[in-house]
Amino acid sequence: MSKVEDDFMARAPADIEDVWRFIDEIPYWTAKKHGKKYRLMYQVYTHPKYFSHGKDFFEGVNRRYSEYAAVLEGKIGIPKDIITPLIFILIRASVHYALFEDEFYLQAQLGVLKKGIALYLSQKDRLLKEEKPL
């Protein structure tokens, strides 16, 4: 699945203006490009025999996306401690859509994600000055 992650990261936004395109595009791209792989992976990793392998795999995913957030911080100007959970929301929404094509769930998650980013950007200067802003 590291190929999937590499493909995802290659499509990532280059700057803050590109974030909106990325959020709108990536769930549908993920479903089209990797939906079958996700369905197989979830069948395997939720089986009791392979559950511990799945936990190990997802610990690696968490680590890689957290590292990626540090790279993305420099491109879009949102601190990694804020962007990391937003990446996880986008990944969860994208994978859920790839598995079930649930447009309602997807749009609800993307809406929260976009509103959260917009709110952060509107308060960015103030938040960066505070020691414990959130």
Written account of the structure:
Helix content is 82%, strand content 0%. The mean pLDDT is 92. The chain has 134 residues and is mostly helical. The chain starts with a helix and ends in a 5-residue tail after the last helix. It is globular. The chain has five helices and no strands. It has one domain.
Features of this protein?
mainly alpha, Transcriptional regulator, globular, 5 helices, 134 residues, 0% strand
As a percent range, the share of strand residues is under 5%
Helix fraction bin: over 70%
The general outline is globular
Largest sheet: none
Mean pLDDT: 92
Domain module count: 1
- How far apart the termini lie comes to 33 Å
**What is Rg?**
16 Å
| Helix and strand pattern | HHHHH
Low-pLDDT runs of 5+ residues are none
Decide which structural class fits the backbone: mainly alpha
What is the tally of beta strands?
A: 0
Number of helices: 5
Protein name: Transcriptional regulator
Organism: Candidatus Colimorpha enterica
In brief, what are we looking at here?
The protein has helices at 2-10, 19-45, 51-76, 80-100, 103-129. It is mainly alpha-helical and 134 residues long.
Layout of SSEs?
Elements: H1 2-10, H2 19-45, H3 51-76, H4 80-100, H5 103-129
